[in-house]
Amino acid sequence: MKKFTSTLSLIVLVVLAIWQYFTDSTKTKNQSPSPVIEQTKQTKVSESKFEPQFETKRTDIEKSAVKNPNVFANYDVIMRDDPIGQNAKAPVDYYMLALSWSPGFCDIQREKYGNQLPSSAKYQCGNNRALGWVVHGLWPQNANALSVTDHPRFCKGDLPALPKDLLARYLAISPGEQLLQGEWEKHGSCAFDSAQQYFAKEQELFSSLKLPNQNLSRNELFRWMKQHNPQLKNAYLGASRNELFICYDKKWQVMNCQSK
């Protein structure tokens, strides 16, 4: 009887041991993966919250840099600081499109300022930017002017800074926010109702011209322009150091620039 009881006890212990083994194994299978899955879920959630925000911010900065290269520059123009000043009463008789040979302009800026370029020239001349002919401005002119002070200037006074997104559209032809702002305040406001109209006309006239991609002497430049632009064939053009002047009447037909 004792032998039977001992055997039965042994069997019970074995069964309990086996049951305990499988019970622990099942718990391990059911419980141990759970922290890993949770950790994975948390990691994915964390990444999904972080990466898009970082990407959005980086993209916004890159877009801002492209659209607004002088994003921190103060590009507004103050009329009282202009050495020529205002002439709001002079009539507008014709227009002069002033084009600038950018390499020559930038050489002068570097000779004068070295590596400390003024903010007005940094976009055009900095970062090894290679530009050719650009638009300096479109200037309403007085046919009876005897000096630069007799032409229309600042006709609407001191104007507020233009939106950067507007200026950004025209940086390809007039490379500088301060340049665009200044030309609008000094000249464009004397003949156009809005800066948008003024810049669009500059772009239209500039796009209608074929321009050389090398530096030419004054006479060579005139010959080249008349040879490649039939509308200029019989027109008297103007020029100064690194600049070319083409004149238009009030119907936007090419006319002779005045020699004085």
UniProtKB/TrEMBL annotation:
Species name: Haemophilus haemolyticus
GO molecular function: ribonuclease T2 activity; RNA binding
Stretch list, region Disordered: 26-50
Record's signal peptide: none
Protein name stated in the entry: Ribonuclease HI
GO biological process, one term: RNA catabolic process
Family: Belongs to the RNase T2 family.
Classification via Pfam families: Ribonuclease_T2
Ranges of compositional bias, category Polar residues: 26-43
